[in-house]
Design a protein that fits this description.
The protein is mainly α. The protein has a single domain, classed as Amino acid/polyamine transporter I (Up-down Bundle). The protein contains 19 helices and no strands. α6 packs across α17. The radius of gyration is 22 Å and the shape is globular. Bound molecules: phenylalanine and sodium ion. The site of sodium ion has 7 residues, from α3. It is found in: Membrane.
Length: 460
């Protein structure tokens, strides 16, 4: 591959295909896998839902991921500049870059509250390790969570610590920052997950969990369930946030975008299934509710660990796993914004990471206060739809329901319809039939599916 001609010599490349796969999988694997996937699967018909979800990953997730990686690698710049360059090369309007602008903005906003939640997980490492849950009642365990959310000081401390860890990695750049972090964190995460599944097999309720996750119950599958599967395919693969564009901008020319996107998606799905097999046996062994909503991780599971043999050890391990998963996702959220800031200004990579990171940390404080002192502050309460929604709720709502699908939709339409087919095929480097399939999915299936979810979410 000719590195000098496309500017990659100066910006650097991932050292290997594996390095990219670990970083992209690190981004994809997060709370969506460990908490949300097992939970929505249980609620929507188990195996039947899993089948629909796999279909959504294949026909929507993988094609959009490939389109994002293509734009990044083709442009070899930050997501906004890459999108503009690819548009101009195809004699299209530079305005297409709004797709990447929305993505970068969404990454910035999401990171501000993702860091707050990452802080919860970090604080739970210390609770679990010091035996705070051991033998406690549900009231006491719930109180620990309530006390954390009610304390701006506690939340701020953990949010600051978490954001500092994220800045620390991104400030050191591609090789000594991102690559070094995922080379350590991802193998550790996989090892912890396997250990957690091993522990779950000793609870005596493992097969119950297998049935809960895999027994296809087509009767329980609703239109709602199908749309949830669709939306989750998007979220779980970290699409619509310019992340895969940023990561793709460091990908070598000789690496297959198609194979790599499939690998990352398979790993993400594998982790989601394993997380279900780790969590539900523990939940069932203690006679707890599987569909316990947001409290599942911070209330139900700690209660269960508190009752179990070696619960202190495995509870601590579980929250370390959760922090590692959140950390690699947060790194991927900061990267596109820092890449953009660094190229837009004369500030160095380190300085850019610190400036963007601090701005994001500041915005995070609004989410922290939404949980306590500002819990009555509902800026859009004049609209019925937003009644009772705090600043935290609103940031979550607008990014997840509007910005991500919009960015993903524009990217799919742009790559599918407005990039010259010949150059696309050359760059994507798939066989004729595979290329044709991908292009048709991107042109017809993906946009229709995204629009359906988009409209549905706005209406419900
Ligand atoms: N893909 C992550 C998950 O499944 C969520 C995420 C969204 C991570 C956005 C990074 C950025 O949990
Ligand atoms: Na995921």
């Amino acid at each position: 591959s000719n590195m000098a001609s496309d500017g990659s010599a100066k910006r650097g490349l991932w050292s290997s295909r594996l390095a990219f796969i670990l970083a992209a999988t690190g981004s994809a694997v997060g709370l969506g896998n460990v908490w949300k996937f097992p939970y929505i699967t249980g609620e929507n018909g188990g195996g039947a839902f899993v089948l629909v979800y796999l279909l959504c990953i294949a026909v929507i997730g993988i094609p959009i991921m490939m389109a994002e990686v293509f734009i990044g690698r083709s442009g070899r710049h930050n997501p906004v500049a890459s999108m503009r360059l690819v548009a101009e090369r195809n004699l299209r309007s530079p305005l297409w870059r709004v797709s990447a602008i929305i993505g970068v903005l969404a990454a910035f906003i999401i990171l501000s509250f993702y860091s707050v939640i990452g802080g919860w997980a970090a604080s739970y490492i210390t609770h679990a390790a010091s035996g705070d849950f051991t033998g406690q009642s549900a009231e006491v365990v719930n109180q620990i969570f309530g006390d954390l959310l009610a304390s701006p000081g506690q939340l701020l401390m953990w949010h600051s610590l978490f954001m500092a860890l994220v800045i620390l990695v991104v400030a050191q750049g591609l090789k000594s920052g991102l690559e070094r972090a995922v080379n350590i964190l991802m193998p550790a995460l996989f090892a912890l997950l396997l250990l957690a599944v091993g522990y779950a097999t000793t609870t005596g309720h493992f097969m119950e969990a297998v049935g809960f996750l895999f027994r296809p119950n087509f009767g329980a599958l609703t239109v709602d369930g199908i749309l949830i599967a669709l939306g989750h395919a998007f979220f779980t693969l970290s699409l619509g946030m310019a992340i895969m564009m940023a990561y793709g901008s460091y990908l070598g020319r000789d690496i297959s975008i198609g194979k790599t996107a499939v690998t990352v998606s398979v790993m993400d799905t594998g982790v989601a299934l394993l997380a279900g097999l780790a969590i539900f046996p523990v939940v069932f062994a203690n006679g707890l509710e599987a569909g316990a909503g947001p409290g599942l991780i911070f209330q139900t599971l700690p209660l269960a660990f508190g009752q179990m043999p070696m619960g202190t050890f495995f509870g601590t391990l579980f929250f370390v796993l959760l922090v590692f998963a959140a950390w690699t996702s947060a790194i991927s959220l900061l990267e596109p914004v820092v890449e953009w800031f660094e190229e837009k200004t004369v500030v160095s990579r380190g300085g850019s990471a610190i400036i963007v990171g601090i701005a994001c940390w500041l915005l995070g404080i609004a989410s922290i206060l939404s949980l306590n002192l500002w819990s009555d502050v509902t800026p859009l309460a004049m609209f019925e739809r937003f009644e009772g929604k705090t600043i935290f709720d609103l940031l979550d709502y607008f990014t997840a329901n509007i910005m991500l699908p919009l960015s993903g939709l524009l990217t799919a339409v742009f790559v599918g319809w407005f990039v010259a087919k010949e150059s696309l095929q050359q760059d994507i480097n798939l066989s004729n039939s595979a290329f044709g399939l991908w292009l048709n999915l991107l042109r017809f299936v993906t946009p229709v599916a995204v629009v359906i979810v988009f409209v549905y979410n706005l209406m419900s």
